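TICKET: design request
STATUS: open
ATTACHED STRUCTURE:
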């Protein structure tokens, strides 16, 4: 595929992105605040718990409607995802739906054809995608609490950071909150970047999505990206028992208590259709004439 060039409004906006870059500097505070087992445990927990809210909440629920839940738990998912400091749920899900509609084309908000840096984080630090794609996420606009959270999306991470400081001091703030947030940024971003250039392909899709166990372990199951692009609106992205998908396991447990329900999974005939011969990581397996079997975002 031909590499695309970036437009003028797709360059880094240093003024708008200053808080994002400052967040990357903040973990250096562990040099003087200290970093021990307590900070390491807090960092680990804050990373994976918030990764669940991003993957199960922002992604599988808000972007793809892969299951149903109550209005209360819907807000819990939104607040939990917002603590990751990746903007509001409507902004995140709206742009993600746009990505699926235009994946790996000039219209894709983070097309890998504009370079690895662009798909990983370049699209976030430009001014072009600052606004929420309200047309793409209009069914959630009727909830005033979600509109409020989308506007004041920095409130949850600020409160979480304050809580870390009050409970554990500066060391937990820098080594627990700030460090885990930066790691969470790049763990999430790997799905947009590395999962489109490295891994194996099981299904014929019109994009470059690939499956990776390593990325799945880092992202609670999002590494089965070729599966996801093939059949999008499912609560599970690991389609087979050996494909580890922690977010789906948690959703299954929550379904036992009635917190979530109607978890959508791919039917057998979908799993068996459009299969490709297994390809080595990095190999080109895009079938131009293939039709994605996923339901519309």
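STATUS: resolved
RESOLUTION: sequence designed for all positions
ATTACHED SEQUENCE:
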């Amino acid at each position: 595929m031909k590499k695309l060039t970036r437009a003028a409004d797709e360059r880094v906006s240093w003024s708008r992105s200053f808080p994002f870059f400052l967040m990357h500097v903040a973990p250096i505070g562990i040099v003087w605040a200290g970093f021990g087992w307590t900070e390491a445990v807090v960092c680990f927990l804050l990373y994976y718990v918030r990764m669940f809210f991003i993957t199960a909440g922002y992604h599988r629920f808000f972007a793809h409607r892969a299951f149903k839940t109550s209005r209360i738990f819907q807000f819990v998912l939104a607040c939990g995802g917002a603590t990751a400091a990746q903007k509001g749920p409507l902004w995140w899900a709206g742009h993600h739906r746009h990505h699926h509609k235009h994946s790996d084309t000039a219209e894709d908000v983070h097309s890998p054809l504009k370079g690895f840096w662009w798909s990983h984080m370049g699209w976030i630090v430009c001014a072009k995608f600052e606004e929420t794609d309200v047309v793409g996420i209009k069914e959630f606009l009727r909830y005033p609490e979600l509109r409020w959270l989308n506007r004041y999306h920095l409130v949850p991470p600020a409160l979480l950071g304050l809580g870390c400081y009050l409970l554990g001091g500066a060391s937990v703030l820098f080594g627990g909150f700030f460090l885990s947030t930066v790691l969470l940024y790049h763990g999430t971003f790997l799905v947009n970047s590395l999962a489109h250039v490295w891994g194996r392909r099981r299904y014929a899709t019109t994009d470059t999505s690939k499956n990776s166990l390593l990325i799945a372990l880092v992202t609670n199951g999002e590494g089965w990206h070729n599966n996801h692009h093939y059949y999008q609106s499912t609560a599970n992205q690991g389609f087979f028992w050996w494909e580890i998908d922690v977010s789906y396991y948690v959703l299954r447990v929550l379904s036992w208590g009635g917190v979530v329900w109607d978890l959508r999974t791919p039917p057998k005939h979908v799993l068996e259709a459009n299969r490709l011969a297994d390809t080595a990581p990095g190999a080109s397996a895009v079938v131009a004439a293939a039709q994605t079997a996923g339901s519309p975002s």
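CLOSING REMARK: Residues 15-203 form one domain. The chain is about 50% helix and 0% strand.
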